[in-house]
Every structure is written in C-alpha cells, then in structure tokens.
Amino acid sequence: MLRYLRTRQAKLTPILLLSPALLTMLFVVALPLLFSLYTSLTPYRLTRPETIETFIGLRNYMRLFSDPDFWSAFGRTILFLAIALNVEFLLGLGIALLINRITWGQRTLRTIMMFPMMFSPILVGFQFKFIFNDNIGILNNALQSLGITDQAIPWLVDAKLAMFSILFAEIWMSTSVFAILLLAGLFAMPRDPLEAAKVDGCNSWQVFRHITLPFIMPFAFIAMTIRSLDVARAYDIVSVMTGGGPAGRTELLWTLIARTGYENTRMGQANAMAYVSTILSIAFTYFFFTKLVAARRYMGGAE
Amino acid sequence: MSRALKNRLRATALWFATFLLMIVISVPGLWVVLSGFRPNREILAKPPVWIPEKLTLNNFAKIFGFGQDQVAIPVLEYFRNSLVIATTSTLIALIIGMAGGYAFARFRFRFKNTWFLGLMLFRTVPGIALSLPVFMLWSRLGIIDTKLGLIIVYVSLNVPFTIWLIDGFFRQIPGSLSEAAQVDGCTRWQAFWRIEFPLARSGIAAAGVFAFLTSWNEFALASQLTRSTDSKTLPVGLMDFTAQFTIDWAGMSAMAFIIIVPALILTFIVQKHLIAGLTFGGVKG
Amino acid sequence: MSRLTAKALIATALVPLIAAPAAAQDYGNFEGETLRVKLIGGAQYEPLYAEISKWEEMTGATVEILSRKNHFELDREIKQDIAARTLDWCVGSNHTSFAPQYGNIYADLNDLIDAETLAAFVPLVLEHSTVDGRLVQLPRHSDVSNMFYIKSLFEDEENKAAFKAEYGYDLAPPETWSQVSDQAKFFANPPDFYGTQYVGKDEAITGRFYEMLVAEGGQLFTDDWEPAFNSEAGVRAIDWFVDLYNANAVPRGVPNYLWDDTGLGFASGTVALNLDWAGWSAFFNDPENSKVAGDVGLVRAPKGSSGKRTGWSGTHSFSITEACENKEAAASFVTFLTDHDRQMIEARAGLLPTRTAVWDDAKGEFAADGRDFMVEVFDTFSASMSEDAFTPPLIPEWIEVSNELWPRLQAAMLGDMTSQEALDEAARDALVIMEDAGYR
C-alpha cells in the first residue's frame, strides 16, 4: 500500500512540478495560437471586427501558395537564417578560442565580448540604419576618408549589399550568444585528452579538429537551438533598417506578415502566413534539437 | 631571452590582440554610446567629424526636461517599469524553471523527451504572430497596458530556456547527495534547498541573466501591449524620439546609454556564475 | 517659455485685434468629468499639450492622456482597439491620410461644433477632413511640401554661366519639375554633393509619385475606382524619379530614405534642392542643427508638364469617438486645442495653421520680430495650401494600394522592371484590392 502510494506520488510529482510551466505556455502561446488559427480561416480585417464571423475555409492558404511574393520571402528567410546562424557560429567559435587562451583579465574581456547582447534589437536597427546611410553614414564616411572608395556605397539599397547589411546587424547582435556558450564548452573540456594528443605528436590543428571540435559541438547545437528559438527578433532590426525594401530585396516573412496584418489590416491573411512561418521555425529548432540529442549521446552524457 | 620571458611576452601580445579585437567588435556599439554625448549636427555630418569637438550632456538634460520648451521623456517611469517587469518576470521564470527542470532531471515519466521538445517548440512562435491574439486575449482580461500583462508574457518567453539550463544542472548533481540527506531525516523539500539548490546556483544565475536580458531588451511584444507610462518599458520609450518626420538620434543614443549601463553592470557582476552555469547546464548531466 | 510669452505680448500689442475673439470663447463647465485621450507624440507636437492644463482649469474637467506615440504606432493602436472593441476613450489624434481607414468610429463634428467656429477654418482643409460627407476630424495643422534650395549656389556667377552654356536657359530657382531635373544633374557631384533627393519607401514615395502623377495630368483612379495610374502620365511621373536615380543626381540610398533622411541630408549641406515639408523650415535655418542655416531659399513646389503644381497635402487633426460618453466636453476640448491662441503657439514653431486668421497673425508676428525667413516660409506655404494642396483619395484602401505601389516604384528605380511594367503590375494588384473592397 505504502509502495503504491509512493509510486503514485512519484508519478504525480513531476506533473505537479511541470504544471506551472505548462500552464504559462498554454495560456500565453497555445490559446492565442488557436485564435490565430481560427482567424486564418476567415477574411478577418482589423478595422472591421465583424469579418471575423465569416468562415472561408482554406482560402487564405490557397492564396498564399500561389503568391510569388510570399514564397520569395519564405526562401529569403531560410537563406537569412542559414547564413546568420552559420556565420555566428564560426565567429563565435573564433572569439571563444581566443579568449579561452587568456588567463589574465578575462572577466573584463568577456564583458566586452557580451557588450552587443545589451542592445535591444530595435536599437540595433536604428544604429545600423545610420551607420549604413549612404550619404552621411559613418561607414561610407570612413571608407571615403581612408581613400578606399570614392563612391557612396548604397549599403541598404543594392540587391546584395542590403541583404549583407541586415545580416551584418543581426550577426553583430547575436554572435556573443554563440561565443559565450562555446566558451563555456571550452571551459568544461577535460585537459587529459589534450595533453595525451600532444604527447602523441598531434599538431594543434589535429588536436582542434579531432578533440576540441567534437567536444564543443553539443554546445554549438545548444546555441543554434537557442538562437533559432528567438531569431524572429531580427524582425525589429529589419523593419527599422529597410522595412523589407527596396523592391522587396530584404523582405523576410516577418516584415511581410507585419505589413499585411497591421498596415493592410488583413489579419486573416497575415495569420495564415504566420502559421507557415511558425512551422518553419519549428522545423529549424527541431533539426538542431535532434542534432543536439545525437551529439549528447555521442559524448555519453545525457539520458 | 629566457623561455619564461618569451612566454610572458607572447601572452601579453595575445592579450592585447584579443583586447583590440573585442574593441573592434564593439565599435558599432561604442559609436552609439559616444553619440549620446554629442550634438546631432556632429554625429551625422559630412564631411565627417572624427574627433568630437565637444562632448555634451545636453542630450541627457533634454531627456530629463531640463532644457527650455522641451518636453521631458518620462524616462524614470520607463526605467522603473523596465526594472519591475524584467526583475519580476525573471524571478518567476526562475521559480517555474526550477520546478520544471527538477522534474525533468529527477523523475522518470512517459514521453519525457516529447514533453521537453514540446516546451521548447512553444517558444519558437514568432512574436509578430502572437502579438494580435495575445492583445485580444489580454484586452478581454483587462491587462493591456499593465505591468502584469507584460510580466506574464515574458515569463512564458523565458521558461523554456530556463528549464533547459536548470535541468542540465540538476542532472549534474548526483541524486545520492539528496538521498543521503533524506536518510538523515530531511524531507525532500529540505534536501532540495539545503543540498541541491546551492550546488545549482551558477546554473540558475546564468539562466537568470539570459532571462533578464531578454525581458530588458524586448521590443516587439512590449510595443503592442504597453501604451502609457503605466507600463511602457525603456526599449519602447526609444520610439519617443521618432516623430512623423524626424528621428532624434542623439537623444535616442543618450537613452540607449541609460538602457545599456545597468545591463552591462549586471553582466559584469555575475560573470563568474554565467560561464560556470552555462558550462554544466546545457550539455553534461 | 517666458521668451515666447514676451513675444506674444509684443505681437498682441502690435495687432490688437488678435486676442480679443479667443479670450471671449467660453469652453463650458465640465466639473468632475474625465476625458480620456490618445495623442500623437514627438517633439514638434508636444508643446501644445502643455496648454491642456489651461483647459482643465477653465472647465473643471480632467484630461487623462492614455497614450502618446508617433502616428504610425498610434494608428496600429487604434486598429487594435477597433479589433478588440476597446474604444473606451474620447479624443484621438488623427490625420487626413489615416482617417478613412477607421470607418465610423469617429463622430461627425458638424453636429458637435457650431458652424461659427468651423467657419474660421480654411475651407479647403475642412473639405480634406471630410470623409463620406462626415467631418470626422477637426484640423490642427496642415502640411504640404515646397522647394528648399541652397541660395548661394544659385547666386554664384560661375554656376550661372556654366548652367546657361550647358542647358541654354538662365539658372534660377526652379519653376517646373524638368528644370529641377536639369539643375539637379548640373549640381550633382557624387559622392560629395547631390542635386536633389527624394524619399524612397513606404507611403512617402507613393505620395510623391501621386503628386507628380497629378502634376503630369494623370489620375490614380478612374471615376469608377479602377486603377488608372499605369497611363502615359504615370510613366512620365515615375520616369522623373528613375532618370535622376540613373543619372546619379540623387544619393544612391534614396530607395531606403524616409523623411528624416531627406531632412538631415539637406541640413548637412550636401544637397542643392530639397522638396520638403513646412515643419523643417525652422530646422533648416537653425545654426545649431543645420549647416545651410542662413543660406536657405524657398520657392513654391514646381509645376509638372500639365501646368499643375505638385501639392500632396495632409492635415493633423483631432477626432471624437462615437463611443464617447461626453461628446460635449470632447468637443470643447478639441475646439480649445485648435483655437486661435493654441494655433499661434504651433505656428511660431513653424507648423502651418488651419485657421485663416492665424496665417496672417503669425506672419505679422514674424515680421515684427524680424524673422524674415519665416515670413517667406508662411507666404510660400499659404499660397500652396490654398491653391495647390490636394489629398490622396480619401478611401480606406489608400494605404493598401500604396503598399502595392511603392515596392514597384522602387523596382523601377533600381532597374528591376521598366516603368510601364512596374505600374501595370501595381495596377493589376490594386484592382484586386478595389474589387475585394466592393468598389466594382
């Protein structure tokens, strides 16, 4: 009897402990998502609340699938995510390796390294809008003063440069997250295999390639997962810097959704887009998460 | 040259190289901070003014309304709101995260991995997709433009990551410690607070910093759910410097300085815990 | 503040008639009432709100400012309120370009404000404030653009001779848009100096295109609301922008420019000609902010090939919600905020008044103070406000149509499409919007 109670209790306790977390998520995320799922099946317009009562089935989704603007924004978003996450990883790794070798004053260096994390995305947007301004921006001024160019480079307008500029801003803001997590990984690394490898005559590249890198990959996947969770923060940056323009060259799903929903007031249509974009971020997160679980197994850590 | 000296020199050179690199990385941010102390005319000038002709506190004076016919920006209210909202939501997220993390680390139950992943995936929904439904729900509940409304949202933003870190951390601590304490007559509750909690402190601190920074800097949802000085936070307050035709970049930079400094100080203080927390929290266990 | 009051006193002494009618106004007694309001924020607009306490004193009512943000954010907030049915406030800032979107949430002021008060406003502006025959907003201050230029460039003898040799006519402040085009190319010396510039995204470029379209003799819609901007006039209008962009006479970044970029660009002294709003006048001539202070010339917006001047105009205003429980108090409040003395406060800062009398009185005051530039500004802008100004079509779909138009305008500028293709494509999508909205 006692044993029965114990197992019962053991079964209930985790549920009890998890319930606050689950309740918050249900309340703040699941419930609103249900609502937006419903509105994505209506011609809902913000300024005409009564339109929410008309049911039009999958019409919004059908429209999406035949809308080239949506698909190019979709593709561009994937490209944006892929480039941003990879570059952030590489840069973060480089920074972490450098700082890891330093023994004195590291706390200060780490704080400087995390400096960009203190910046609100909206601020980063304004900041780079001004830095990249072609006429009076500090970047072109610097390039011209140094004699590197005599042109006013249209950073936010040129097809490739505009994408580069918003990527630069995003990468500037978020590389720190990678760096700090990878640095944590390096700290956790046991010394013995490194010493052993050196004794065996491996050069530093081989040591890095075969010992360090595999060890910190799980940390990299954690960073990727975490970043893919809130990468939509880039919306604030892009909407201030280019607003998706010019001529749709930097249009990402999020800018498109915001314009459709709030400016054009077609909330039904916007929510259909939002659903597709949610599925996209879920796919990204799921992908990194499975990688993480695999890497953990490889290390024999978790489970 | 002796070997020791050579090593010493190399270490110093490396330090300086790294330091310089960090400064270069920070340049766009430092430019913002510096802009807060310069007049607009000098920041966005052509030909450029590289060496500031004068540094001024005018931008700050304007924010606080010391200038003539200049309307003050209620920066103290914003600061208070930001502080209350970020701190409260971080604390609540940590408590919920500790409960959840403990459950994942110490108990076996069915579909554990699925639950865990599900919790993470909730977090992936882009803010822009949530903004209107949350707004509608909040307005039914009458918590639009209240600190409470924003706190609830931020708690849910931070809970998944907090659970993740803390879960990893608890796994790191051998269960035998707590069991031993229970044998000695502690309840599980007491054992948790006396044994496991102190050991997990770093992980909790790391999760706390991340949660705090997220809430402190969040803009997209805050700009939808706040309206007046009752609840507007600092990042939303930045928009006070934009009007239909103008952006007061110098003023905005000054305000940015006010936002950045507290976050930076906090980060510096908890540095030690941060690294340790992330080290053991995420992967091992 | 005291400096301003002193000036006001001098002005009143010089023109004794001004203050009399305003002082006699009775704003009623609303003891114990609380008025909930949402106002547009921003440095330019806020000085007026310092006056609110005077109205509170006179009427005994309290004003609770629920929010104060820039217009685009306020717009979003109001749309959310409509959606969530939380219109629990009385007075909101409004704008002629935004007003049609809000449907019937705002009351018809013809029923709330007496005809005598309304008669003191500029008739054309009241007309612009009317949607579907309902006066949904009381105009606060108007805006329209005219051409600012760097004076010394046009007075320089070498420039004059060189220009004449190249273009065959005298260099003088532009009268037509094709002259602007010539002069812009003449002065341009990228990347250090540009002939002119324009905004390149959002409703801003749609508006600029729209006024050019009108000046070229075209129209946005036919009388049956079918998109008609993909006409020859439309192509001429868009080509003006494309041509200057390709000639490098404008900064390469213009497709990403908004009003702050053009304003700051002109103030940085690197642009010869700049079509811009009245609100910038004082800024351009202020040595603290602008390098061209003291060297700023101003002419009326040039003419297009049809002989019509460009004159895209908008007016900031106040509206009263239908849901408001005390419309009388609200009406008294908005009347106060737009009365003679209040408009004088805004006019002194360079905002364009909507009351006929304030135009003259403000000008008189500037003259008395020796602010010659501001006199010139008010002369020029009053002429264009009364003769050239027109609004975008006052339909709810304006912003949505604009969102179809501006990415295409950019595409034409950047060479992704020809002008005709860009306009055809925008027209096709605009037609869908109009059909969806039930116009056809």
UniProtKB/TrEMBL annotation, chain A:
Residues 74-288 form the ABC transmembrane type-1 domain. It holds the Pfam family BPD_transp_1. Keywords: Cell membrane, Membrane, Transmembrane, Transmembrane helix, Transport. Its main location: membrane. The chain crosses the membrane at residues 12-38, 78-99, 111-132, 161-187, 207-226, 272-289. It is a multi-pass membrane protein. It comes from the Bacteria. It is found in: Cell membrane. PROSITE patterns: ABC_TM1. PANTHER family: ABC TRANSPORTER PERMEASE PROTEIN, INNER MEMBRANE ABC TRANSPORTER PERMEASE PROTEIN YCJO. Belongs to the binding-protein-dependent transport system permease family. This is Sugar ABC transporter permease. The lineage of its organism: Bacteria, Pseudomonadati, Pseudomonadota, Alphaproteobacteria, Rhodobacterales.
Automatic annotation (TrEMBL), chain B:
PROSITE patterns: ABC_TM1. Residues 79-270 form the ABC transmembrane type-1 domain. It is found in: Cell membrane. Keywords: Cell membrane, Membrane, Sugar transport, Transmembrane, Transmembrane helix, Transport. InterPro entries: BP-dep_ABC_trans_perm, MetI-like, MetI-like_sf. It holds the Pfam family BPD_transp_1. Gene3D superfamilies: MetI-like. The chain crosses the membrane at residues 12-34, 83-104, 116-138, 150-170, 249-270. Its main location: membrane. It is a multi-pass membrane protein. It comes from the Bacteria. Belongs to the binding-protein-dependent transport system permease family. MalFG subfamily. Part of the ABC transporter complex MalEFGK involved in maltose/maltodextrin import. Probably responsible for the translocation of the substrate across the membrane. This is Maltose/maltodextrin transport system permease protein MalG.
UniProtKB/TrEMBL annotation, chain C:
Its main location: periplasm. Keywords: Signal. It holds the Pfam family SBP_bac_1. Residues 1-24 form the signal peptide. This is Sugar ABC transporter substrate-binding protein. It is found in: Periplasm. Coiled coil: none annotated. Belongs to the bacterial solute-binding protein 1 family.
